[in-house]
Structures are given as C-alpha cells and as structure tokens.
Amino acid sequence: MVHYERYICIIDPLHYNNLWMHRSFPLALLIVWMPPLLFASLPAFGWNNWTGPHWNSCCERMPKLSPLSNCSTNGTTCCSYRRVFSNAFIYLEVYGLVLPAILIIAGMTGRVLCITRGQLKDICRLHRAGERGSQASNREQRMNLRYTRCVVAVSLTFLACWVPYLIYMHVCIAFLIIDTKWSSTTHIVLSCTGIGSMAVVPLVLGLANRQYTEPAYKLLQKLRDRWRRTQEPEEDFI
C-alpha cells in the first residue's frame, strides 16, 4: 500500500491528495489486513491434512514430541507442519500471493525511477537552455548525483531485504518438493535471514518518508525543548 501511494504520487501528482485511501483510511487498513488474515485462517477452517493416515497413532506413541517435530511411522511423516499446511496452500501462498506482490512492488519502483529519470533530463535540458550553455552546471551534477544515490539506495534495499526472503522461500519449496529432511541449524539461519530482512522493509519505507519522520522529529524536538526548560531554573539557582 505504501509503494502504491508513492507510485500514484509520482505518476499522477495532481490527484494524489484525492486518493481513496486518504479519504477512507480505515477502509484502506481493512483491505490491507483482512485478506492475509483470512488466507492465514484457511487451515483452521478445514484446509489442512489433520486427518492424514496413521498420524494420530504416531503422535499417540510419541507424546513427548513437540507438535512441530517430525516422527516417522512406516515412512509417513507426522506431528509436523504438514498436518496444518497442505502443499497446495504453501504453493498458493508463495506463487499466488507473495511472489506476485514482490514483482508488482519491483515494477512500480522501476517505473517511478524511469519517470524520475525522464523528469531529471527535462529539468537539465531547460536549465541548459536558460543558461545558454552546453556544459553541465554544478546544479545539474548535484541532481544527477542525487538521482544516482536514489537508484543505489533502492537497489541495495531490494537486494538486502527482498532477495534473501526470495531465496529462503524457494529453498523451502525445494525441500518441500524433494521431501527430505534438513538440519535445524540451516533452517534457523535461513529463516532468520529471510524473514528478518523482509521485516526491515517497513522500517526502511518509514525512514525514507517525511510524512512519517517529521512527526517523530517534531515530538523529539518538543521533548528536548521541554527538558532544556526544566534544566534552566536549576542552572540559574546554581
């Protein structure tokens, strides 16, 4: 939703303040949160493998195992996530929801960078026409340098935040397809790296948006001014 808002701000800035998400913010939150919550609740509503063959007897024989652990009876894996999440559910989540959303975000970001590059070229062309010179001025160089920094920041953010998560998802899918066990250490490292890198995305978007940072900055400035006012009487008394 944040990427879409930025995309509309660049593509159609005249209608940015009239966006439906600004007019009805609770509806925007509902649209963002309800579909994932409903999809995540599907196993609880019956889309699961809870009644698999020999699973109940397997778990009854090994009561000390965690519900997320694996035990085997006659070659059948039980007491694991497979009882809750079916393969179709996992495939739909990865290739039907998460991966298309990431590709859409990458497409919108690339489109915004292309439009910004075109606008920058137009500004430089008008600037040169006004100064009647063919050499790039210091202002043009600063604008080009700022655009280059923006491209580098966006690329590094995508590589550092989304690529590890994509690798983690596909490694999990690969192990799911070949149906082999893998070490818990490898799983812990991949899951922490992948999910942790994805969790950084909202923080990066928030720090890069002045609409989010300015209120926090004003609040910190008020607290600092109040603290200074409380310290002034003590200094005068001393």
UniProtKB/TrEMBL annotation:
Keyword check for Transmembrane: yes
GO cellular component: plasma membrane
Organism: Iconisemion striatum
Transmembrane regions listed in the UniProt entry: 27-47, 90-113, 151-178, 184-208
InterPro entries in the cross-refs: GPCR_Rhodpsn, GPCR_Rhodpsn_7TM, TAAR
Name assigned to this protein: G protein-coupled bile acid receptor 1
Bilayer topology term: Multi-pass membrane protein
Entry keywords, A to Z: Cell membrane, G-protein coupled receptor, Membrane, Receptor, Transducer, Transmembrane, Transmembrane helix
Gene: GPBAR1
Subcellular location: Cell membrane
GO MF annotation list: G protein-coupled receptor activity
Domain G-protein coupled receptors family 1 profile, residue spans: 1-205
